[in-house]
Amino acid sequence: MISIMIDVKLDRNDRTDLYEQVAGEIRRSIADGEAQPGERLPPAKDLAAVLGVNTNTVLRALRLLRDEGLLEFRRGRGISVAASPERGAVVQRSRELVEFARRHGYSAQEIIEIIGGMA
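-> structure tokens emitted (119 positions)
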């Protein structure tokens, strides 16, 4: 696994939260092929130092991307690119579907059965 340095540009005059800007730039790097599945990202504290932001801002961005399925956190191995943007989009939409179905009273097993019936 190679550790990559992503070129992240932040606009402090933009109303978009800094963590969202950081996440967007990393997402773009993955979509553009600058960061490939399996490649490691620099530690959050290093990214924060380069960007001139708080480490918690970077961690929040990285957790968002993890939740989207784009990044993988492994103890002792750091953070790596887990998937392509397409897979990340599918994971995110799947999460939205599960949340929607649960709000409407469906169990996880019922959701699986519904999806299985579509295949």
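The chain has a mean pLDDT of 84.
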